[in-house]
Amino acid sequence: MTTGQAVLLVFVLLAALAALLLWRLARAGRARSGLPRGEIVYGDTGEWMAAESLFAPRYRLTGKPDYLVRNADGLVPVEVKPGRRAAEPYEADIMQLAAYCLLVQATRGERPPYGLLRYEGRTFRIAYDATLENALFDTLDAMRADAQRSDVPRSHTDPVRCRYCGLREDCHQSLVD
Q1: Which of 67, 105, 113, 157 shows the greatest Cβ crowding within 10 Å of its Cβ?
Q2: DSSP, residue by residue, 80-108
Q3: Are 15 and 72 contained in the same domain?
């Protein structure tokens, strides 16, 4: 073996080792993210992929899931709440995920079997069934009815929610100054 061949062999081995290391790091990062196996076909993370809103005029609904992943189960919306820790998913987060499932069905013509809700260190698989879909429609109806009212009572006693609410400046029921 000549010196040139030896250098080339070392270079090829180092490149293969680097590729293997990058592949393992990518797999570990994906596992930490909570994303399922499959092809990411839509993403709105702002870091490496920015997507347009999904819009369903029939339902007067628009939204941007964090990801849509196509896997063996179909097209699955994924919503990531990185700072959230809870033993059970919040009802509002479940409704948000259900809205994304409805938007996927309306805009992509494919009904997701479930959606994934990722909290810090935990992923919840939420079945998108008729019960959840009906609860979503009831929630949307209630929200639209509230939008017609001149005064809607606050629905919580959490000062943190008030502190970060986009309507706090106009709310006379805020729990924070």
Answers
A1: 67
A2: EETT---SS--HHHHHHHHHHHHHHHHHH
A3: no
Q: Is residue 176 part of a domain?
A: no
Q: Is the pLDDT of residue 80 over 60?
A: yes
Tell me the pairing of strands 74-81 and 114-119.
parallel
- Residue at 175 is within a domain: no
User: Closest Cα to residue 62, out of 80, 44, 47?
Assistant: 44
Angstrom distance (rounded) from CA 62 to CA 106: 11
The total number of structural domains that make up the chain? 2
What is the value of pTM for the model shown? 0.74
Report the C-alpha gap between 86 and 81 in whole angstroms: 11
Tens-digit pLDDT profile for residues 89-113: 999 999 999 999 999 999 999 999 9
Q: Based on the fold, state whether residues 49 and 87 are members of the same structural domain.
A: yes
Q: Is residue 68 part of a domain?
A: yes
DSSP 3-state assignment of 3? helix
Band (42; pLDDT cuts 50, 70, 90)? confident
